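quick one before i forget lol
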Amino acid sequence: MTLTDLPAGFRDEEQRGYVRRVIHDRLADHRDQRECRSLMRFWWQPGMPCREVTLDQLRANLGADTLRLVEELIAALHPHRAAP
């Protein structure tokens, strides 16, 4: 699954802003710098068609619980796709 089409998954700007706040305020924990850097790169993804981070990079840098939440978030935005 590519993350470059994430912007198309939002119904409006309010929903996009909410998702970005969840990523920033709830998932990104500055105590784990590697995970936080990856999440902040992912934070850009919902607003841009460019590729800031790949799913493989997220898998390599996020803890299991955070990765599960990010994959669920992606699946909610694109329910017709399953994460590989």
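fyi The chain is about 55% helix and 0% strand.
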